[in-house]
Design goal:
47% helix; Chitinase A, domain 3; elongated; four-stranded antiparallel sheet; alpha+beta; 2 domains; 346 residues
């Protein structure tokens, strides 16, 4: 088979050293040197040879493994030949004797161990159904938003600070005055006012109101309205949307939200409402625009939830195996040596 030697420099360094990372621990449980492992690999007979580089045979099994795992995942035969040439050149220059490669070799063995002993036992079809549903429900709260509404209003308010320390009779009197003044404002407004109309009326009357009454205009408020929609189908059939409200949306007082929602459902957009009372005073409002609920893509939501649960299951398996292995291991540290090594590095 012919191949282009110029392409050798396109192979990744990680691909080049992969072959030197597959040696196994010796019978004593330690790690043989990389050089010994490499020479041992070269000396082993190969039954099914797919190619040779400088007499070094590459088996069909090795080709198959390089296409499944490690940095060479999906490698073609040509890429494997490039890798072998780089490995041979690295050995000539004694790169395989460097401590950094021993560290990389250990990392590769750890990856193999985790893939076989931790990831392998966790099968998608064995994931806990309750955990999947819980993950989906949690994600659903973070994706999409309920239906919303944009509305504006003019308010004759009884400021909360004034209500706080006042007698009940005074608060009732102020609310009665607020309703009367709201009627005055209403008579000075068209049935379908513009936002400038609301601000002009506020400017015209704001200094005439008795204390502590005030006039406020809030234009283009956007808020969720799912709390004000009658659920005709029942909770079980209600749409499933998240609570990730857009940044410009803000909750409103229930009386305002319900009145604006009722006007929108009656298709009375842009029209002034009847007087609406809340704890803040008396409102005239108009519904302006509906925003449909943003529902999550159920397939994507399910896939993400499944990935989360699978990751949690693998973590649980890892903790269990690590606990088991740690109990069987004899671990000793040498603080003085560690301290000296740390001081040397700094």
């Amino acid at each position: 088979m012919s191949w282009n030697y110029r392409r050798v420099f396109s192979a990744g360094v990680g691909v080049a050293i992969w072959a030197s990372l597959v040696g196994c621990a010796d019978s004593g449980g330690g790690h043989p040197s990389v050089e010994a492992a490499f020479l041992d690999l070269q000396s082993k007979p190969v039954s099914a040879v797919v190619a040779e580089v400088d007499g070094r045979p590459i088996s069909a099994e090795e080709l198959s493994a390089s296409q499944r795992v490690g940095d060479a995942s999906g490698a073609t035969l040509e890429q494997l030949l490039e890798r072998e040439l780089l490995v041979a050149e690295a050995v000539k220059r004694k790169y395989h004797t460097r401590p950094t490669l021993q560290h990389a070799r250990k990392q590769a063995m750890v990856q193999q161990l985790l893939a076989q002993e931790v990831e392998g036992p966790v099968k998608v079809d064995t994931l806990d159904a309750d955990a999947l549903k819980k993950a989906e429900d949690a994600l659903r709260q973070q994706v999409g938003h309920p239906p919303g509404l944009q509305a504006s209003h003019i308010l004759v308010s009884v400021p909360p600070d004034a209500q706080k320390d006042a007698a009940k009779e005074d608060v009732e009197k102020w609310f009665a005055q607020a309703k009367e003044w709201l009627a005055v404002l209403r008579d000075d407004l068209p049935d379908r006012p513009t936002i400038p109309d609301l601000y002009e009326v506020r400017a015209r009357y704001r200094d005439e109101l008795p204390k502590p009454l005030e006039i406020h205009v809030n234009a283009h408020l956007m808020f969720p309205i799912d709390a004000y929609l009658a659920d005709e189908k029942g909770a079980a059939d209600a749409p499933q949307y998240g609570r990730a409200l857009p940044e410009t949306w803000r909750p409103v007082v229930p009386e305002f939200g319900q009145a604006a929602t009722d006007m929108a459902r009656a298709d009375n957009f842009g029209q002034l409402s009847d007087p609406v009372k809340s704890n803040f005073g008396w409102h005239l409002l108009m519904a302006e625009k509906l925003y449909p609920a943003a529902l999550p893509d159920e397939q994507q939501l399910s896939e993400v939830a499944r990935a989360q649960v699978e990751r949690q299951a693998r973590h649980k398996e890892l903790v269990a195996r690590m606990t088991e292995w740690m109990e069987d291991a004899s671990v000793q540290t040498f603080p003085q040596v560690i301290s000296e090594a740390h001081d040397t590095q700094n």
